[in-house]
Amino acid sequence: MIRQGRPEHIVDFTHVPCAMTPASIDANRALSRTSAFSQARSATWNTPKPPATPAGSRFARRRSGSMSSIRRRGSGLTNEPVEPAEPTTSRMQDAVRLLLLIDGAAEPVDDPPPPAAPSGAVAVLRTQVLLQKLDFWLRNPDYFANMLLDRFEASGDAALLDHAERILTSEEPEIRRHPMLRYRFGAYEPLDAALSVLAGPGLVFRRREGRPGRTRQHNYYLTEHGREVAREIVAEEPALEYYVGRVALLVAVTAGQGGTELKDEQYRQQEYAGTAYNARIGAITGRVRQRLDAIREAGAA
Question: Pick from 47, 115, 231, 269: most CB atoms within 10 A?
Fold first, then answer.
C-alpha cells in the first residue's frame, strides 16, 4: 500500500531536551492520568476476569506443549529451542508510543468510511508492515540518522544532513534506543498487548482486511477520542513532544513509500539483515557517526 504524498515540510524540534528521555517517563501515569482515557477505561475495563486455568489441567499441558513447539521452530536453522528475547519496553510505554505514531502517521479516513471502520474513526494507518517499519526508525535513532544521510546524498537537501547531525552528535542514539526483534519480514515486535491498552478505552482499533480464513493486511484506525487523548498526554507530559516531532519528520521523509519499500530499505543495512531470527537488531551508532564525519570532511575540502 503506497501512502499519499505529504507536504515537504520538515520542522525543527530540537527544543525538546534530549536528556529527558521518554523511556524515563512513567508511561502508565502519562496515559492513565488523562481524563478522557480514565473515563473510557472505567467504563470498559471494570469487568471480572475469567478464572485462571489450573496448572495441571489438560488444557494447560496442551498449551505448554504448543508454546514449546513454537519456540523450537526458532529461526528455522536449528532444532534447538529458541527462547524469545526479553522486551526492552513496557506495555504502557509501547501503547503511548504507538498512539503518538499512529496519530502522526495515519491518513484521514475516506468519506464515506469503509464498512470495516469503527465508529468515530478519523484516520487510518494501513498495514502492519508499515507500522512496524516506522516504529523501528522511531525506536532506533542511529538507523534513522543513517537513513537521513542516505536521503541527503541522494537529494543534496542540507536540512536532512543537519537533522542527522543533531541526532548523532547527541546522546540520543544511546538513551532513546529500544532494539527490536528481527523476524520474517524484518524488524518486529508483538503489538497485541499495547494495542489492547488502546482498544479498551476506544483510542485505536485494529481491523483485518481480506476474506474469511485469509487476512491480507491489518489496518489501524485512530478514533476522534484517540486523537484527543494523544493531545492530552503530550500536554501533560511535554517530554513526549519528542515523539510528536520525530514522527512528523519520519512521515515527511518517507512520504509516498509503503511498508514493503521501507522494509527493503532497512534490509540494506548489513547489521540488520545479518541478525538471526528472534534476536535483537544491533546498533550501528559508531559506523554512522564515522559516516557523518566523512561527509562533513568531504564537504569542507
Answer: 269
